[in-house]
Structure formats: C-alpha cells, structure tokens
Design goal:
Largest sheet: 3 strands, antiparallel
Number of helices: 4
Structural class: mainly alpha
Radius of gyration: 25 Å
Shape: elongated
Strand content: 5-15%
Distance between the termini: 25 Å
Strand order of the largest sheet: 1-4-5
Order of helices and strands: EEHHHHEEE
Length: 196
C-alpha cells in the first residue's frame, strides 16, 4: 500500500555483473585508444564482407520483438518501459552487427597487412565500446522505475529472489479517478442510483 511518485525506483535488480563488464570494457577501450595513438599511420582500405548469419538473425529477431512489443503496447498490454527495453535490445543487436562487420573487415585487413596495428586497435576499440554500451544498458535496466505516481498494490518478488522475464513483479494503481464500466440489465436500471 505504499504511495510512490513517478520515476521512483520500485525494484533494483542485481547489476554487479553488468557493471563489472562495463569496467572491463572501459579498460579495454582505453588500452585500444593507447594502441591507436602509438600505431603507424598506415591505412589500407579493408575489403567488405557480410557479417555472420547468426548476428544478422539476432538483429531480425530483435526487430520482430520491437514490432510485437509496440503492437502490444498500442493495445495496452505492454508498458512503454517494455518497448524501451525491446528498442535497447535492437540497438545492442545492431551495434553487434556493426561490430561484426568491422571485426570481419579488420580480420581480412590484418591478413592482407599484418603490420596494420591501427586497424586492429580501432576494431578492439569499437568492440570494447559496443560491449560497454550493451553492459551499461543492462545495468541501467536494473532499476525498475514507477511509470506514474500511484499506490503499490502488491509486490510479487522477494529481496535476493530470482526474477523471471515476463513475470509480474508488482502491481501499481496509478493516482487519479477510476472509471468502472458496468452493464446493468434494463429491468434493473431504475434501481441504480448515483453514489451506490
């Protein structure tokens, strides 16, 4: 029965693992930047190559999930937060696709020119940034915030317990007037009064 304001943190999921990945990727990005600064100015244009079918399939699956979530949100079955999560997943998948394309290009370039340290460092930097962004998105998702001011009616999770995707964690009744639609048989309509 606690009252909460819009944007208040309702549930905080464990984000230690995601934050550790963020820090590791940040260190890898700094190392790659240092390698790029120290690399020679040799630049060989890499040949293009298609990314892996698995990464492309993940992007397509994420796009379909966004479409499904948007349709369900438009019908009132999903929240804006669920749509935002689906959009973040799509962004992460697209970033992985770009990273896979870059990594594939860099691998072919490294084969053609083993001395191209700058290209390898750039690939490592992009991959570290991609990993850091995806991990940061997971860490950001660890804070479940109230979409509106209201009253918490029930909490269906326990401290330290597991959270299952798609399961209701809590129920929030938004502030404001409630409307109830009731069908009354015509024979009983005369008995209905305002304020009952």
């Amino acid at each position: 029965g606690d009252h909460v304001e819009s944007g208040a943190v309702l549930v905080e999921l464990d984000a230690k693992e995601a934050l550790a990945v963020v820090e590791q990727a940040r260190a890898e990005a700094a190392q790659a930047e240092a390698r790029m600064r120290g690399a020679r100015e040799v630049r060989v244009p890499p040949p293009s190559a298609p990314p892996s079918a698995q990464v492309q399939a993940q992007v397509e699956q994420a796009r379909r999930q966004v479409e499904r979530t948007r349709a369900l949100r438009d019908k009132g079955f999903m929240s804006d937060a669920a749509l935002n999560n689906a959009l973040r997943s799509l962004e992460a998948a697209e970033q992985q696709l770009r990273s896979a394309e870059t990594q594939g290009n860099a691998a072919r370039s490294a084969t053609a020119n083993a001395n191209n340290e700058e290209a390898a460092a750039r690939t490592a930097l992009m991959q570290a940034r991609s990993t850091m962004q995806a991990a940061q998105a997971r860490a950001d998702d660890a804070l479940i915030r109230s979409p509106a001011s209201g009253t918490v009616l029930s909490v269906n999770v326990q401290r330290g317990g597991a959270v299952i995707s798609g399961r209701e964690m809590l129920v929030l009744a938004p502030d404001g007037d409630a409307e109830i639609a009731v069908r009354v048989p015509a024979a009983r309509a005369r008995a209905v009064r305002v304020g009952q």
